[in-house]
Design goal:
This protein is of the alpha+beta class and about 140 residues long. It contains seven helices and five strands; from the N terminus they run ααααββββαβαα. It folds into two domains: about 35 residues, no CATH class; about 90 residues, Endonuclease, Chain A (3-Layer(aba) Sandwich). Helix content is about 50%, strand content about 15%. The relative contact order is 0.13.
Length: about 140
C-alpha cells in the first residue's frame, strides 16, 4: 500500500518517516517502502535477496521495458503479481522474455505464490544461477 502511495506521489518518504508508528511491524513496512517497487511482491523479493546477500538493481530499462530486477549484468528477474493471469499478459511476457534472451540475458520469472510462500525455492534458484555465472556477461 505504501509503495503504491509513494509511486503515485500521494505521500513521500519523509512523511512516512515522521509518522509515530505504534506497531513495530508498521514501522518496518514503512521503512522498506520505496518508489522502485511496483508492488508488495517486489519489495518482499528485494528483502529476500538482501537477506541472502544478493544485490539487485530495480527497474532497469532494457529493450524499452523495465526489469523488476537485474542481478549483475545479465540475470533478469521478472515478478508476476497475484492477479497476473490474463492470457494477453502472459503472451506479452513470453515475447519480452524471448527478446531478452536474444540480447544475452537470462530470465528468471517468479510469481506471487513462489516469492511469498516458497522463498527458499526462489533464493536457491537465484543462488544456483549465480553459481553458474548467469549474472555475468558472456
Amino acid at each position: 500500500m505504501w509503495e503504491s502511495a509513494l509511486s503515485r506521489k500521494l505521500t513521500d518518504p519523509l512523511l512516512l518517516a515522521a509518522v509515530p508508528w505504534t506497531s513495530p511491524s508498521a514501522r518496518a513496512l514503512a521503512d522498506v517502502a520505496g518508489i522502485l517497487s511496483d508492488s508488495g511482491v517486489e519489495t518482499h523479493f528485494i528483502e529476500l535477496m538482501r537477506a541472502a546477500g544478493v544485490a539487485v538493481r530495480q527497474q532497469v530499462w532494457v529493450d524499452g521495458h523495465p526489469l523488476d530486477g537485474l542481478i549483475g549484468d545479465r540475470l533478469a528477474i521478472q515478478l508476476d503479481g497475484f492477479a497476473h493471469h490474463r492470457a494477453a499478459d502472459r503472451r506479452r511476457d513470453i515475447a519480452a522474455d524471448a527478446r531478452l534472451l536474444l540480447r544475452g540475458f537470462h530470465v528468471l520469472r517468479f510469481d506471487y505464490q513462489q516469492v511469498l510462500f516458497d522463498p527458499g525455492h526462489v533464493t536457491a534458484t537465484i543462488l544456483t544461477a549465480m553459481a553458474q555465472g548467469l549474472h555475468r556477461p558472456r
